[in-house]
Amino acid sequence: MSPSQMVVEQIKAALREGEVVRTESREVPHVRTALGRSSGGRGSDTYVLKSDEDLARAITVLRSALSKYAPKGSPYHSQAQAVVDKSGISNDHSRKQLLGMLKALLFEYESGSLSSIEEIVHADVFSDFLEMSRHLLEKGFKDPAAVLAGGVLEQHLRKLAQKHGVDLRGEDDKPRKAQAINDDLAKAGAYGGDVQKEVTARLALRNQAAHGEWEKYQHAQVSIFIDGIALLVQRFPA
């Protein structure tokens, strides 16, 4: 089962859980007014209501699924939060609205109108490594930061190559150099010549860091290097 299929199954499971809400009977006594008269006569009225516990559980499950599987920056996140802020987590209106949102997200996954979950996972993983690079750089370790970020750059180029049908191995069956992959990605239309040149410059710094030529670049260059790789991953998901 592919990652995308696994996500679809998880969303369907959350939807099933969100549909299960028990009802319970509650007796509400008649209230005596200031004039001494009871509204509705003596006794109490019985109401059949949705279980607060089940509503809270269902809404939490639905919100969690939307948070996990909706793409970052999509309207699902803000809309789900707005629903809960307005109606709370023990309100059946909130549950029904979140069910509708999660069904819409499921439709987008099944119809292929969203980026694949593989792209989302790759972007998140690479983002974590780049944050580690920034942390190293802030602590004064420019060379380990450059090596780590350079690894993200090379791996992202290889993921892009797989996406665009660019060979990762040469005729001798050996792994191709990152620069050769970069050139072929431009030829395949993955990105334009301006981006190709930027990647070439970043690969040069990456090679310097990997080969211990640490005197050839400065702290500020590594900062620009990391930011440039982050932008590449964001603009051209793989």
Report on the structure:
The chain is mainly α. It has two domains: 109 residues, no CATH class; 119 residues, Four Helix Bundle (Hemerythrin (Met), subunit A) (Up-down Bundle), CATH 1.20.120. It contains nine helices and two strands, in the order H-E-E-H-H-H-H-H-H-H-H. A two-stranded antiparallel ribbon has the order 1-2. Helix 1 packs antiparallel against helix 4, helix 3 packs antiparallel against helix 4 and helix 6 packs across helix 8. The longest helix has 23 residues. The protein is elongated, with a radius of gyration of 27 Å. The two termini are 19 Å apart.
CATH class division of the largest domain: Mainly Alpha
Strands ordered across the widest β-sheet: 1-2
How many beta-strand segments?
A: 2
Please, how many domains? 2
Provide the CATH topology of the largest domain. Four Helix Bundle (Hemerythrin (Met), subunit A)
Number of helices: 9
β content, as a range? 5-15%
Global structural class: mainly alpha
Distance between the termini: 19 Å
Could you spell the SSE succession in H and E letters? HEEHHHHHHHH
- Radius of gyration from CA coordinates: 27 Å
- The shape, in one word, is elongated
Low-confidence stretches: none
Helix content: 55-70%
